[in-house]
Design a protein that fits this description.
By secondary structure, this protein is mainly alpha-helical. It folds into two domains: about 60 residues, no CATH class; about 35 residues, no CATH class. The chain is built from four helices and no strands. The chain is rod-shaped.
Length: about 100
């Protein structure tokens, strides 16, 4: 037990005749705290789900665009694309003209 209030609450709950007024007051005090904790959990879970969905979407986009990106990389490496620098840094960017 941490405080006299906690001891009073414990005794009220476990007695043969609980003190309903004390219990109702304590429930009213704790209701706001529980709602704030619930809201925070919803925010955190929503953020985690959003992040996971974004990672899945990114992976799916990269997979579907894989063939085109491989073709671009092959073209740049072979030097068949005139006006496009063949430096490694430019291969990672969006086909910047030289």
């Amino acid at each position: 037990m941490r405080s006299v209030a906690d001891l009073a609450l414990f005794n009220a709950v476990w007695s043969e005749r609980p003190d309903m007024a004390l219990l109702e007051d304590r429930v009213a005090e704790l209701r706001g705290c529980v709602e704030r904790v619930g809201d925070e959990l919803c925010v955190r879970l929503g953020t985690t789900r959003s992040r996971a969905a974004l990672v899945r979407f990114t992976h799916r986009c990269q997979w579907h665009d894989r063939g085109r990106m491989l073709a671009v990389a092959a073209t740049i490496v072979s030097g068949a694309a005139p006006g496009i620098a063949s430096r490694p840094s430019s291969r990672a960017t969006c086909l910047m003209p030289a």
